Every structure is written in C-alpha cells, then in structure tokens.
Amino acid sequence: xxxxxxxxxxxxxxxxxxxxxxxxxxxxxxxxxxxxxxxxxxxxxxxxxxxxxxxxxxxxxxxxxxxxxxxxxxxxxxxxxxxxxxxxxxxxxxxxxxxxxxxxxxxxxxxxxxxxxxxxxxxxxxxxxxxxxxxxxxxxxxxxxxxxxxxxxxxxxxxxxxxxxxxxxxxxxxxxxxxxxxxxxxxxxxxxxxxxxxxxxxxxxxxxxxxxxxxxxxxxxxxxxxxxxxxxxxxxxxxxxxxxxxxxxxxxxxxxxxxxxxxxxxxxxxxxxxxxxxxxxxxxxxxxxxxxxxxxxxxxxxxxxxxxxxxxxxxxxxxxxxxxxxxxxxxxxxxxxxxxxxxxxxxxxxxxxxxxxxxxxxxxxxxxxxxxxxxxxxxxxxxxxxxxxxxxxxxxxxxxxxxxxxxxxxxxxxxxxxxxxxxxxxxxxxxxxxxxxxxxxxxxxxxxxxxxxxxxxxxxxxxxxxxxxxxxxxxxxxxxxxxxxxxxxxxxxxxxxxxxxxxxxxxxxxxxxxxxxxxxxxxxxxxxxxxxxxxxxxxxxxxxxxxxxxxxxxxxxxxxxxxxxxxxxxxxxxxxxxxxxxxxxxxxxxxxxxxxxxxxx
Length: 601
Known about the structure:
Blueprint: H1 6-16, E1 44-48, H2 64-70, E2 78-79, H3 86-89, E3 93-94, E4 114-118, E5 124-125, E6 131-132, H4 135-144, H5 165-174, H6 182-191, E7 197-201, E8 204-208, H7 216-220, H8 240-243, E9 252-258, E10 262-267, E11 285-289, H9 295-304, E12 309-310, H10 317-325, E13 331-339, E14 342-345, H11 351-354, H12 359-368, H13 371-377, E15 384-386, H14 413-422, E16 429-436, H15 441-453, E17 457-464, H16 469-474, H17 477-481, E18 487-488, H18 505-509, H19 527-537, H20 542-558, E19 562-564, E20 566-573, E21 578-579, E22 583-584, E23 589-590, E24 596-597
Parallel strand pairs: 1-11, 1-12, 16-17, 16-18
Antiparallel strand pairs: 2-3, 4-8, 5-6, 7-8, 9-10, 10-11, 13-20, 14-18, 14-19, 15-20, 21-24, 22-23
Helix pairs in contact: 12-14, 19-20
C-alpha cells in the first residue's frame, strides 16, 4: 500500500470542513493565548460539531478530529508543541522520549539507519493498577500497525521503511480469520518479531530502517506510532468495545463513548505534569456533543456562550466578514497554510484530441486563472494569498517563484489564447470540470470556468456529491481513463507540517504506482520528478531533502501538472470563556490540553 493513503485524511478533513472555509493546519494561534494571565484550573470545556468520527484507536484512526482528541490520552515518542510560532509548531520535540536522538549523542547511527531512543521514565498508564510506560509498549505499537482488524491508516510511512516490517506484516494482514479474533491477534504479535524494532531494555527502543529518512522523527510523531498498552488485546482493534476501554497515558481519559452523539473525557489521576512536557490538565472535564450538522448553528452556540469550540465545523462565510470587521478577539487566523483547493489535470483524458496531455494547453490554463477572485470566495487575502508553487509556505522545500506570472495574479486571457493557438487549438476547446456539490466548491468552479471561457475554453460542469468526490470519482481510474473529467479542484491537507515532503509531493505526484485509490488523480508521471522524490526521501538531513523537494516542485510546475490557487490559512473561533487557545497544526484544532476556562466570562 502506498503513501497515497494520506488522501484519505485529506478527503475526510476537507469533506468535514467543506461548508465555509476548508481546513488547514497552523501554529500562529491568535486569540487569547498566554496574554490572559495565569492559567486557571477547573470547569468543563464544551465542544460541538457534526462528528461522526467513530475511530478513537491511535493505531488506525485517520482524521484531524481523531488527532485532536488523541492529544488528550495518547502519547508518542515525539510530538508537536502547541505554539504561536508556525515553525516551532511544525517541529517535533520529545514527548514520551527522554531526549532528541542525534548522531552526536549516539541516538542516530552515522549511516542514518539506526535510531536508539530513550523512553522518558515515570509515565504511567491509567491501568488497574497503574504501571509505567516502557519501550515494549512502542514495540507493540509497530506490531499492532498490521493487525488485520484495524491496521495503520498510512502503512507506507512505516512498513517499507523499517527493517523486517514488510515480512512481518504481509502474512498478518492477509489472515482474515483474525479480523474478529483479539486472542489470535495477540498470539500472532507475541510469536512474531519485526527484526528492525527492539526493546534493548525497559527504557531503550531501537529502530533500524531500510534506508535513511530525514523525516523519521516526524513519522514517529504521528498518532499511528502511539504507545499501545497490553490491555488492547482484550478487544477487537477499532471496535466500540476498545474505545470504551481506552487506557490513557495523557491528562484525560475517555469515560463516555456514544458513537455519533457524545464523547466525555475526565481527568486521568495517573497522569503527572512532570512527565509530560507538552500537555496540561487545566479543565476538569471535556464534553463533545456530535450531530451538529450546520456551521451556522455551531457558530451561534459559540458566540452565545452555550459551547466553547467547534469540533469540525468552520467559521461560516456568512459570519467571517462580520467577525473580522469588529476585530472579534475570539476569531483566530491559523497557519501554516495549505494548497487548498487547486486545479488538477487529467493526463489520461481522451477528450479534445487528448488536450490535457499537451504541455502548452496546460500552461495556457496556468495563465488563465484569476487567483485573487478565487481567494475572495474563501474570505479574501487576509486568509488566502495567491500561490504559484506546489509546496506552500512553511513546508519543507518551499521557495517563492512564479513560472506563469500575470498582472496582480488576476489572469492573462490573451496569453492563454496565444498558447492555445500554439498548441493547435486556435478556436479553443471544450473541457469537463468535475466539482463538489457542497460549500464553496460550486463557486470555485464558476470562477475558474469564467476565466477559461475568457480565453476560448468552454467548460462543461460535472457535479459530484461531496461524499463521492474522492473515493468514488477522482480516485477511480476507470473514470480518469474514460475522460469523465478533464480538470477538477480537489484540496490537500498534509499529515504533518515542517519536513513533510513525504506527505505533500510523494502522494500527489509520484506516478509509479497509479491505481485505484490514488491521490495522483490525473496520472502525472515524470521520471525526473520520481527520481527527485527518491533522493528527497533518502536524504540524511532536512536541508538536503529540502533541496530535492524544491527541485521536484520546479519540475512539476514546468510540467504544469496542477494550477495552484492559494495558500490558505484557517479562521477558527472559540467562546469568550476559552483562554490560552493555541493552534495545533497536526490536529488542525486548538490544543484542548493547553487551554483553560475563565471564571469571569
């Protein structure tokens, strides 16, 4: 299974946030922060939203909402700090690890293949009785990734990159009779080893890679790599029974799980502040109420003080201007930005004499698009700036350049017409444009369709239900080959920020494994780009990787594989009771463990 699995998270996140402003991560925070004085303890944090996030298992859950909730009860070796500095918020730091491994301290071998990671002592599981978290709990984490009942959401991050994991996982995943057999899963995991993952002692984990990976610490910072307690062998992985018996190592524990309706978290008395450098335990209780489908209804509750934070609904476009105009202190604008949405070309379409496969046609469309008009649909330049590169700012490899400049980023119909004529289409052509029937997406379609019409391209709209847009339409190769679409405007939210080329360039532009489920929707396939991806993924340092990612960015834009629209930040709102609200990029949400409730509000 390939890294394209990241598209599931992107699709889920964008689908959940389709009405109003699409999701993006960030660390700039805004709003209350530490300026509100000394944190206060007590009170109940009330979270409301659409919900439907039914998976709370750290190994397999794959959504931004699950990441936000897991922050309260799961622990990773490394994690991301909630910070108003985007760079700091995108840089992993020790969590359950006692220190950052380096070549100098012996934590990373000189060839970049072996990591020795010290586990922080004193972390306790909320088990009966409480017991210490040890290196073996992380060995179990890697073994558990390949259980056939609910395997890891992004296997390509780990399975091919860790020595011996492929041979361990292949027969495990194929054993369908274990899907409802927790005892059988336990027996397999305890009788089989991953050669590259070992507990050298109770507090030392050793991981050996198949090839260097400068982003391996980032991979260990994903919730997939959370420590797994032995108690999980009592339940089918990914089942409601497991979610009702989660064992916490964070400041809160799940005490109520009512799927689609309510989740309640209360204080974990086994958690100690001096063993957790990232989280706090300010509020007494966190109540999540699901089933709130309307962003407008959620916003009314937040502004009225009946709820504190939206679980998954954005600030409605109808409210954004009003809140910004009065400079509402509870409205935050969060980064780093993401490329969302963007225009992708179907290289395989047979339509108009295979027009989309022709470089000058794609380049003509690059010049046609009015990016300023598109940004207005998502709230204007305060939240979105025109983007001309594949990689957005604050992600590895980003450098500002523009191969297709137009006056004020507002498009150049004359240049578009000229290039179409050079491509053999002096009288224009017709294209099919697939778009989502939800939120801002019809308006996005209308905007770029108008731009294309101005240079002689007739656009036939192909409306697709939001729920089907990715998995049932763009990711079905039969639709691509049949020319059911020529262009489309998906979005992409990377799984992490900072050194994240593996979660941006690789899934969207590596053309070697094009198949159903792909996130390289139009089958862009460049040997040059593929080679640069390989060099970036095996680079020993972030700087070396950044150079290759930037070269890949330039090659993709030379090939005009997509039209970037905007670098989009996320407006998010909280009630006036909430203080210390700081954005957590990897969860695209405020960090619930670092805020408190004001008694004076």
